[in-house]
Amino acid sequence: MPSYCLLFLCILTGSVGATTITDFSYWSPSSAYGSWAAESSPKMRSGEQDWSITSTGFGGVYKYLGSGRQAVNLSDATDLKLELILQSQSNGTKGIGFFVFLEDRDGTVYKYSRFGVQAGQQTLAWNLKTPSSLGDAGTVAGFDFSDVQAINLVIDAGGANHYEVSYQNLSASIGVASDQQAMPNYITRKAIPYIDQPDDPRYANCVLDLYYPENVQDFATVVWIHAGGLKQGKRYIPGELMNQGFAVVAISYSLYPSAKAPEFIEDAAAAVAWTFSNIESIGGDPEKIVVAGASAGGYLSMMVGLDKKWLAEFGMDANRLAGIAALSGQTITHVAVREEQGGNRAKPVVDALAPLNHVRADAPPLLLVTGDRELELLGRYEENAYMWRMMQINGHTQTQLHEIKGADHAAVEKPGHQFLLEFVKELLTR
Questions:
Q1: How far apart are CA 269 and CA 308, in angstroms?
Q2: DSSP class of residue 70?
Q3: Residue 33 C-beta-side C-alpha neighbours within 13 Å
Q4: Alpha-carbon gap, residue 417 to 327, rounded angstroms
Q5: Is the pTM of this model over 0.70?
Q6: Domain chopping of the chain, boundaries
Q7: Which of 190, 217, 404, 422 is the most exposed place for a label (fewest CB within 10 A)?
């Protein structure tokens, strides 16, 4: 695990323009990570007795410090800039990693990162509305830039046994970032039922969150289905899919063992059908819908997109989908379904509830991403490789397979989103 240093920044009052958003005299360190005397340009050094660089992870540190201070309003700002001087960096070309975390009132965390920073005076800049990744999701989808409650600085030492950082300035500015011209505003609507059965407990989990660009026409949509082995988890909007010019429909669905096969497949199909029926009313193009998911969500995505019967129950043709994407999804019958059938977890089954049973030449483009074949769950890479091969044999020429070397099952999703983004953008250029 990497070693990290974390600092809490208490928040100042006032609005933000092309100006500093924090004064270093207001900084407070987390008690779990030592302390230092406040300076106008505070330093962080490795190896000092009063500063820990051995802790890993970020558990329990996202809390608003600075009782009585108003939140910073960054709703008009577009650029985030951190100026610093890095001295005595001792790990060669690997460099130091720097992060800025923003947290809003409901607990959503946006993370901005830069790796490989070398010694010298540095200015690290990000587009404020396009985080490098999303941390905690909070209770409301999306980030409220008008109500920032905490700012955190983080260092990933990158294995360096000695470094010294002097922070100079943290600022936000108003203006359109060079890589995000005319960036649209995004709207989030939460907990929308996609099956109209409010009094039936069978459908209690059948709700979705809708995240879409405002006043944009003909945008694409990714229906995102969460992981969890069909037994746990809930909907969320991946940070990597936000502010990308398309909508995200993040769904919850019925879970095993309360739900039995094929109820979770039916739910996923219903959510996709809802998207076909409703996305045009807010500017989306129903011919640009991609169904995607991680692990169990990838399995459901393939079942809905490959076995045409599930969408046909809603009067929809699965071939209308622009694409199907599965990040480490099972292509054989899912382990939870096999468990329900009394099967052995290690014994593969390919039946009517296996995506592999529905390979066909006329299916929408298919993206398959897995972890390292030596680290993945129970032959997950090999399942997907066989799916890729059988799609080819059956005449499907638009199936991609990517193996992420060094990644186990849990580590696939985050880098997998980059493949998904490229897949969506490629589909839109056809």
A1: 10
A2: P
A3: 25
A4: 8
A5: no
A6: 4-173, 186-428
A7: 217
- Tell me which fold the domain 186-428 belongs to: Rossmann fold (3.40.50)
Q: Looking at residue 72, what is its pLDDT? A: 65
Q: Would you state the structure tokens that stand for residue 180, as one six-digit string? A: 């995000």
In 336-421, the DSSP E strands lie at 366-371, 399-404
Q: What interhelical angle do 296-306 and 263-278 show, nearest 10?
A: 70
Q: Which residues in the chain show pLDDT less than 70?
A: 1-72, 88-94, 133, 135-141, 157-163, 167, 174-183
User: Tokens 């577009």 label which residue?
Assistant: 78
Residues in the chain: 430
Cβ 274 vs Cβ 264: under 8 Å: no
Query: Can you point out the beta strands (E) in 21-95?
Result: 27-28, 43-45, 79-87
E strand or H helix at 385, and its extent? helix 380-393
Q: What is the pLDDT of residue 382?
A: 97
DSSP reduced 3-state for 206: coil
The proportion of the chain whose per-residue pLDDT surpasses 90, expressed as a percent, equals 50
Tell me which residue of 418, 378, 365 sits closest to 132, measured CA to CA: 418
Domains 4-173 and 186-428 share a fold: no
Phi and psi (nearest 5°) for 420? -65, -45
Tokens of 269: 């199909």
Which residue has 């045009």 as its token pair? Answer: 280
Contact present, 237 and 212 (Cβ < 8 Å) = no
What span, in angstroms and rounded, lies between the C-alpha atoms of 73 and 430?
40
pLDDT digits (tens, 9 = 90+) for 84-100: 788 766 666 667 777 78
The string of pLDDT tens digits covering residues 347-405 is 999 999 999 999 999 999 999 999 999 999 999 999 999 999 999 999 999 999 999 99
DSSP string, 337-387: HHHHTT--TTS---STTSGGGG--TTSPPEEEEEE-TTTSSTTHHHHHHHH
Q: Tell me the CATH number for domain 4-173.
A: 2.60.120
